[in-house]
Structure formats: structure tokens, C-alpha cells
Amino acid sequence: METMKKLIEVYASGSTHMVGDGFPVRNIFPSHDLTESISPFLLLDYAGPAEFPPTDRPRGVGEHPHRGFETVTIVYQGKVEHRDSGGNSGTIGPGDVQWMTAASGVVHEELHEKEFAKGGGTIQMIQLWVNLPKALKMSSPRYQTLFHTDIPQVDLENGGSIRIIAGEYQGLKGPARTFTPVYVYDVKLPVGIHAELNLPTGFNTGVFVLSGAVMVNRSQLVGEAEMALHDPQGTQVHLEATEDAILLILSGEPIHEPVARMGPFVMNAEEELAQAVNDYRAGKMGHLD
């Protein structure tokens, strides 16, 4: 029998800050203490929407390291260039996703794309961090570019759509290759349109609203830059847009392991964080030319 994933609480942004000089973000977690209740997801930063004037020097985040997890960047407006110490580079724009597995260690930069920067415009994007289990934290880095044309979409009756970035929906599978089971959906719901999501029991689930507002499980209104956190038990989440809405759905199998984090490193123990710092300083994660 299908049962609702009970809504536990609604969270607004816990902090607002600049990432580099190109991404003004509202952070949902880890600002709130959700490490266990949203695992395997570690971070959700919502950048923008923000207008940037034209410039010949692209804004963004310069060279910095990561180890022990994956970064997922989803672009809604604007264009971002990526370059890392593994020799990967590329540009993502509206509807595209970059899924980078830092694992044993990567150094990278993320900047506004040159031509976008020259013309100025709106940046709107989300960055997620997705944890890796202990057995995979020191595996080889990996990089996936998921262009919007690669991401399958289900059109809902009477309007609206669900794009499947990771996991599956109605038999369609998302292109992201993940190390643990996760579902990531990009959802658009015009006012009055509803959607019924079926997600695995035992999976932690969050419904994040980028814009507009939705009634969740017919009982709770969730608005812009807010996330509804659900009980892992149950299998259904009901959504109805009270305004034209753009949503990001996150659902994943929790990783029941200790989490030790310091800046750009997420490991299982404090001594592993110290080792990550030493390895970065020693150049073992590489550098950008």
C-alpha cells in the first residue's frame, strides 16, 4: 500500500553569503543540522537569481580543492565554465548539469563563461554536494557533463514537466552515474498543476522551491528558497503549485557512516581531514596551469 512520506519540517535559508565573487548563495544545508536527515546530500547552495554587469574579467571561484564527495551544479540561467586538475573542462548553460566526483582529490575553478561575462546577465544555479561512502572516498575522480538534451523529461497532464537528472521516473532513467542510489528531479509546475512522486521507502527526501510556491502533501505551503524535509518512511510526495513553480527534488539512500568535514573536504574522521590538507599542500591533488 502506498503511503505519504510525512512532512517533518520546512527550512528557509540558514545563511546568505558570496561564494567567490560570482555566486551570491542562500544555503539550506549544512546551515541547518540536517546531516543525518538529508544524507547522502551534504550541501545545497542556491545562487541567485542575481544580475551581473558586463566585465572583461569573469567572476566566480578560483582554484580550490575537494576530496571525499561529489559536486553537482545545475544551471537555470547564465553560463559557467569549469576547469580541473584532471584535465577536464567545459561550459554548462541553462538546463545543463555538471556532476564532478572529487573522490581522492581534485583542484578546480568555476567561473562565469567569458562571453556571458562580457555581456552581463542573470546567474541562477544550484550546487549540491553528494557524499561518498568510506569505501569510495579515495577512488579515482570522475567528471560528467549532462547537457539538457541528454536529460529525459516527462510532460505532465495539463502542463508541467519533470526532468530526471538522476534516478528514474515512470521508467525513464536519468543520465547521471551515481555511486549510491539517488533521485534528482528538476520540476516545473504551472499554477494549479499537481504531481505525485513515488520514491523509495527509507530514502531521505527534500523538496526545494527555487521560485513560486507549492502545497506539499495537501497540507503545507512551501515558498521560494524553502525546502520541505520528509520522513524517509512512506513512498509518496504530493505537490500542487499555488503559483508557477520551479522545484528541485532530492531523494537518496542514506549513508550511515560518520561525517567529518572541514572546508572543501568531507571524510569520516578528523585525521583523514588532516591528511587531505597535507596532500593538497603537497600538490598531490594537482594544480591548474
Description:
By secondary structure, this protein is mostly beta strands. 6% of the residues lie in helices and 51% in strands. It contains two helices and 26 strands. It has helices at residues 114-119, 270-281, and strands spanning 7-11, 15-19, 23-29, 41-52, 60-66, 69-77, 80-84, 89-92, 97-101, 106-112, 121-131, 142-146, 153-155, 161-166, 168-169, 172-173, 182-189, 194-198, 204-211, 214-216, 220-222, 226-230, 236-241, 245-252, 260-262, 265-267. The chain has a seven-stranded antiparallel sheet with strand order 1-22-19-24-17-14-13, with no helix packed on it. It has a seven-stranded antiparallel sheet with strand order 2-3-4-11-6-9-12. β13 and β14 form a beta hairpin. The longest helix has 12 residues, at 270-281. It starts with 6 loop residues before the first strand and ends in an 8-residue tail after the last helix.
Measured distance between first and last alpha carbons? 57 Å
How many E-type strands? Answer: 26
**Structure classification:** mainly beta
Strands across the major sheet, in which order?
1-22-19-24-17-14-13
Sum up the overall morphology in one term. globular
Number of helices: 2
Could you outline the blueprint of secondary structure elements for this entry?
Blueprint: E1 7-11, E2 15-19, E3 23-29, E4 41-52, E5 60-66, E6 69-77, E7 80-84, E8 89-92, E9 97-101, E10 106-112, H1 114-119, E11 121-131, E12 142-146, E13 153-155, E14 161-166, E15 168-169, E16 172-173, E17 182-189, E18 194-198, E19 204-211, E20 214-216, E21 220-222, E22 226-230, E23 236-241, E24 245-252, E25 260-262, E26 265-267, H2 270-281
